[in-house]
Specification:
heterodimer; A: 341 residues; mainly alpha; ABC transporter involved in vitamin B12 uptake, BtuC; 14 helices; 0% strand; globular; B: 258 residues; alpha/beta; Rossmann fold; six-stranded mixed beta sheet; 9 helices
Chain lengths: 341, 258
């Protein structure tokens, strides 16, 4: 069976992402040649003993312990943030929202910080992040709705700004009461957004729920086209609007909250990636959602590579995505009127 | 054998918060009819249409094919009736073919994506509406008339034979208004049933098999176009004078300018 145009684009994207991932696996402070990597793969997967001079143990350390978890995490987080951004934009029929703007990132970071304060248990931290991420979206929607009863683009954005500042202030309280010698530095450094702490087992644990929520959002993507027409029209076309909206908001909040738990606040990805894709290939969500995952993953992987390699000191990736994201968003705003009418 | 109505509305009362919009409406719609709902702004005709599509909640008795509307899901209703809203802007600028394929949504499984067959049906619908050449154009860049035709094509792609249209000619230029009415007339001859709201008694006369006139939340006239549209009704409902003339076998409603 011939592949549809959509599948071709998605497979091309996946191939490019894999190539990029392989490249970042080999490139770094200690570059690994293809030859050495090939020998390493043969030894690990097929038990073929490699040449002694290749120092396979060191290669294994670098690849499996340091670079692979970090690359996997970068892709997961980029994919989670960009996909959630695209889904929030569809759910609220509002091209200006993202996990950051709706306050989800602030809410999740407040939840995660509280979790760190009360418990060492990573699972509790994740649950707290998700719960407060969800509370933050709810609060943004509530503020947006009390100010204006009809669905208003600007009011929801303002609601998100208010919700975001509320949880940022609450987070400051947590920081204020945190132990200045252990918990506080941990919270502050984590919030700046970094992938450098990636541990393989932790990454794998969070990979499952993130991948599942992204997959869920991709499977639901055909409904997002309908929901963006407005509730009445979507219902008349036979869509269970409330169910789809709730599932989608839960999945998007879950994915972006977990991204916060793993790497702190990484802004702008969720806002700009969907816009870039819309400008490139159009607004249909059946392509926009999977491509947001792929391009978001690739974007963060690239940003992380820059943050590792460009300077001798490592820049926290959250700072870097803001620095890259802001000029891109200005360009997007200038050109985007065509993309959202 | 007595003909059974497709949709039956009985003693329907409905209001938003403190304001009563509908005050006891009875209406039946039969297969093959082209019914025009006529009435001034705020008389409740759009609300009535939305209630009949279950887009607004009500406890009142509305039945579809003899079964209460409450027992239908939106998906099931969309398998009987297509709703064609007034054309509007969408925040994301989908292409025309994507807009029309959206009419296929209720036919797809939860995980399925539209197939080549769905696209084929969508193209045929565009062809029926006479706008196949617009297929790849962005919806947002079309004229009002073209947008309205795309929404009509989407309803055709839904593969149902009852169409509800909310003020279809609103915002269209003069030529497109008449062309749209001609298309509705031609679809009606193919066997589609229409319920449409309109502001224009003259348009109602042109293509309706039955006209229902609403004023302040009640139905004041319900019958054949010749019986319903008369000078006194126009004066009562709209507060202006009009003359009903016959032109080329058609009754026409001509307002009299002071």
């Amino acid at each position: 069976m011939a592949l549809s145009k959509e599948m071709k684009i998605i497979f091309t994207g996946l191939a490019l992402l894999s190539a990029l991932a392989l490249f970042s696996l080999l490139w770094g402070q200690y570059p690994i040649s293809f030859e050495v990597f090939y020998a390493y793969i043969k030894e690990v997967f097929f038990g073929i003993k490699a040449d002694e001079t290749y120092n396979i143990e060191l290669i294994h350390n670098i690849v499996a312990e340091i670079r692979f978890p970090r690359i996997l995490l970068a892709i997961l987080i980029g994919a989670a943030l960009a996909t959630s951004g695209a889904v929030f934009q569809a759910m609220f029929v509002n091209p200006l929202v993202s996990p950051g703007i709706l306050g989800v990132l602030a809410g999740a970071s407040f939840g995660a910080a509280c979790g760190m304060l009360v418990s060492e248990n990573w699972f509790i931290v994740q649950i707290m992040a998700f719960v407060f991420g969800f509370v933050a979206v709810g609060f943004a929607m509530f503020v947006g709705s009390i100010v204006s009863s009809s669905r208003s683009t600007i009011m929801l954005v303002l609601g998100g700004v208010i919700s975001g500042s509320l949880f940022t202030s609450l987070l400051s309280i947590v920081k204020y009461v945190a132990d200045p010698y252990s918990t506080l530095p941990a919270i502050v450094y984590w919030l700046m957004g970094s992938l450098s702490m990636a541990q393989l087992n932790e990454v794998l644990v969070v990979a499952i729920p993130i991948t599942l929520s992204i997959a869920g959002m991709i499977f639901m993507s055909k409904y997002f086209d309908l929901l963006s027409l407005g509730d009445e029209e979507a219902k008349a076309l036979g869509v269970n609007v409330n169910l789809i909206r709730i599932i989608a908001i839960v999945l998007a909040t879950l994915a972006s909250s977990l991204a916060v738990v793993m790497a702190g606040i990484i802004g702008w990805v969720g806002l700009i990636i969907p816009h870039i894709i819309r400008m490139a290939i159009g607004p249909s969500h059946r392509l926009l959602i999977p491509l947001s995952a792929i391009v978001g993953g690739a974007f963060l992987l690239l940003a992380d590579a820059v943050s590792r390699l460009a300077l001798s000191v490592e820049i926290p990736i959250g700072i870097l995505t803001s620095l890259i994201g802001i000029p891109i968003f200005i360009i997007v705003l200038k050109n985007a009127r065509a993309a959202w009418n | 054998m007595e003909l059974k109505p497709i949709i039956k509305v009985e003693n329907l009362h409905f209001g938003y918060k403190k304001q009563d919009v509908l005050k006891g409406v009875d209406l039946e719609l039969y297969k093959g009819e082209v019914v025009s709902l006529l009435g001034p702004n705020g008389c409740g005709k759009s609300t009535l249409m939305k209630l009949m599509l279950k887009l607004l909640d009500t406890k009142a008795s509305i039945s579809l094919n003899g079964k209460s509307l409450k027992e239908y899901s939106h998906k099931e209703i969309s398998g009987h009736i297509a709703y064609i809203p007034q054309y509007h802007n969408v925040p994301f600028n989908y292409s025309v073919i994507e807009m029309v394929v959206m009419g296929r949504i209720s036919k797809l499984g939860f995980f399925a994506t539209p197939s080549a067959k769905d696209y084929k049906i969508a193209r045929e619908a565009l062809k029926r509406a006479g706008i196949l050449e617009l297929e790849e154009r962005p919806f947002g860049q079309l004229s009002g008339g073209q947008k309205q035709l795309v929404l009509l094509a989407r309803a055709i792609a839904q593969e149902v034979n009852i169409f509800f249209m909310d003020e279809p000619v609103n915002g269209l230029d003069y030529g497109n208004q008449i062309r749209l009415l001609e298309l509705i007339d031609s679809l009606a001859k193919d066997g589609y049933t229409f319920l449409k709201t309109t502001h224009y008694p003259d348009h109602a006369l042109l293509i309706s098999s039955r006209i229902v006139v609403m004023d302040r939340g009640i139905i004041i006239e319900d019958g054949s176009p010749e019986d319903v549209i008369h000078s006194k009704m126009i004066t009562d409902v709209y507060g202006i004078k009009a003359e009903i003339i016959t032109h080329d076998e058609h009754k026409r409603c001509v307002p009299i300018f002071r």
